[in-house]
Design a protein that fits this description.
The complex is a heterodimer of chains A (about 55) and B (about 230). By secondary structure, chain A is of the alpha+beta class. Chain A is built from 2 helices and 2 strands; from the N terminus they run αββα. Chain A is elongated and about 60 Å long. The chains are: A alpha+beta (about 55), B mainly alpha (about 230). Chains A and B meet through helix 1 and helix 2 of A and helix 5 of B.
């Protein structure tokens, strides 16, 4: 039971927060936003593999 | 009683061919969404770009969310809180949601910057935004169901916003049973219905062409009947 409580307690840790002046963001949220921007830019510039030849 | 033989149709049905409301409804549906538009074999060449992939990515993520959610619902909280397999399926559910929102947001950015509401696609855009908003509410109820201190914190921060909006009496974030029913029945049905309507509208109007595509582009003329509204644009 004690192990169970410690597992749940670890899930409730506040996480790492980054701040610049009044702006504050959790590291996890920042990573997700950066990954989305990266995906967007890659989607615009990476060549799309050509599929099967069509008639 | 006589039997009337219906010859096979090679053309789109005309409105006066039907006389009952069921027939008229079928005719209207077939005119707006013929089988070759509903399940197309080809897409225009401009669709061959990674930016057109993220809508389908969101749908695949949604399928994973629904499938893992069904397994979680059938086995119950004790299973997904205490067993290894339960933890795994619970994590699949969470990470599918993360992927769902990431692909949906990139899809939204792509469609925003190509002004995807052009060419009579206003309702497609609105249903897409509707799917996004309903998904946020669904995810919110999911975070409330973690049944840990995190969900307790979210509930007691969220209740003030909901009470100030005047809906706290019938959407009570502190009522776990009510939120559970919202999360596993009502909201998934709403997300599924809005996403299905969104996809049907994309099929009806076709995938939006890039902004730089010329109006005389032969790709844009494919599948557009000369008498339709889009052909006149």
């Amino acid at each position: 039971m004690h192990d169970l409580v410690s597992i749940f307690a670890s899930l409730d840790s506040p996480g790492i927060y980054l701040g610049w002046g009044a702006f504050q963001i959790q590291l996890g949220n920042l990573i997700v936003i950066l990954v989305m921007i990266l995906l967007f830019v890659l989607a615009l510039f990476l060549p799309f593999p050509s599929g099967r030849k069509r008639k | 009683m006589s039997l009337r033989e219906n010859p096979p149709r090679e053309h789109a049905p005309e409105e006066d061919e039907y006389h009952t409301w069921t027939g008229k409804a079928r005719g209207a549906l077939l005119r707006r969404l013929p089988a070759d538009k509903l399940l197309p074999e080809d897409q225009p060449s401009y669709v061959a770009s990674w930016i057109y992939v993220f809508g389908m990515g969101a749908i695949v993520s949604l399928v994973f969310i629904l499938a893992s959610g069904v397994i979680l619902g059938l086995n119950g909280p004790a299973w997904y809180h205490l067993s290894d397999l339960g933890h795994f399926v619970n994590s699949v559910h969470l990470w599918s949601v993360e992927l769902f929102f990431m692909t949906m947001v990139v899809h939204l950015w792509g469609k925003y910057w190509m002004a995807a509401w052009r060419g009579g696609r206003t309702l497609t855009w609105i249903t897409g935004m509707g799917a996004f908003l309903v998904s946020i509410v669904t995810a919110f109820t999911g975070y409330l169901l973690q049944t840990n201190f995190d969900s307790q914190w979210i509930a007691f921060e969220g209740k003030d916003a909901l009470n100030s909006a005047g809906i706290g009496a019938w959407f009570n974030v502190a009522n776990l049973g009510q939120i559970f029913m919202f999360h596993i029945i009502l909201l998934p049905l709403a997300v599924g219905a809005v996403v299905a309507l969104h996809v049907l509208l994309v099929r009806m109007h076709g995938v939006v062409p890039p902004l730089e595509a010329a109006e005389s582009d032969a790709q844009l003329q494919t599948g557009v009947r000369p008498d339709s509204e889009e052909a006149g644009r």
